[in-house]
């Protein structure tokens, strides 16, 4: 016998579980279906972000940063630490525990908000009067009937043609988070977010890391001045980044991986490594959704086609997050999930794509919101720029981390903030001030006039805003 719901959400990643909770808060009878399993076969809601993405990678970054500080920075604080060793198994176990805490937290939130959770793979069966029949394939198969369906099935790592992931030698983000011992030599293909973060983790722990990037520029989506500053820091740390390469044959053997490639000069090269992490983007996950059963429209990439409100071509069917257009970011998925739940309730849910922040959690961290200087130039927008280095910030000196800067870009006529770009300590936290400011269409002068606590890293934000008008006080 089928179970009837007002709203059924397929997928419990950031977009899905947030959409389910918000819909329940709005008075709907809600179900959420998710197939992720933990090592014991139990439910593990949270999607890629919680299980093999945002959360576990930050746990490993934190552990590796502690190790790096103990080995290289404690002495300058007067702390003696000899023979510091890393227990990789314990580090991985801690990461797994952090993931479990987040999984359990989502299950608790479902219970608190009276969201019915079904563990298994959700797929369309057919359209029925007043809605859709959705099948749950799992240990306890179920048939649900929904008036409204929200699809939030996320994305999967993109493999290189002819080089499938075996998660032993050739690793996706999943395998990169489960390496059991520090590899002597680690190769990465792709210098995007995942590549840089995972490369940073294992370099700090002692691996010889080389990143091969096909593009001729480093971090092409990042403001050029910020990207150059970041690359200088990574080069100094010993992270080897080769740009403009063309990857050829990849041989996966018992003792590791051999990568043939052509460098930027056109010279044939070979890179031998114990492990290879492939970080060349992600693809929308619509596998097993049975979209054809109801005529759900997909594009050439396999993404679900939606309009500006996340509506699909089917009445009562919506899609959010990585499985639709736009940046593949957890917080973008969350905002879309909330907006869709509110639209179903007849409200006016809203997502401003122009103020979605981006973060790379390396050391130094890189964060930005709005347009880059090169984008403004290409668009013919007249602008003013202001920068302030962390080298001149008192709190950064006290932390012992003065790498990087804050950069403001403002309209030359109105002074409205058009973009803020940060490379340096705690950039991921500092960027939120810029997001708030841009949402309220603030000017650089507004930030320059706001009192910031002293000493704090956020003073660098104020000073960069002052620099737009060429009147910094501390540099």
From TrEMBL:
One GO MF term attached to the UniProt entry: dihydrolipoyl dehydrogenase (NADH) activity
Keywords: Cytoplasm, FAD, Flavoprotein, NAD, Nucleotide-binding, Oxidoreductase, Redox-active center
Location of the protein in the cell: Cytoplasm
Statement: the UniProt record of this protein carries the keyword Flavoprotein: yes
Coiled-coil annotated spans: none
Protein name, UniProt field: Dihydrolipoyl dehydrogenase
GO cellular component, one term: cytoplasm
Domain of life: Bacteria
Misc: The active site is a redox-active disulfide bond.
Annotated ranges, domain Pyridine nucleotide-disulphide oxidoreductase dimerisation: 356-465
Keyword Nucleus: no
The record's free-text note on cofactor binding: Binds 1 FAD per subunit.
Residues holding NAD(+): 190-197, 213, 281
Domain FAD/NAD(P)-binding: 5-337
Coarse class of the protein's main subcellular location: cytoplasm
Organism from which the protein derives: Giesbergeria anulus
First-tier enzyme category under EC: oxidoreductase
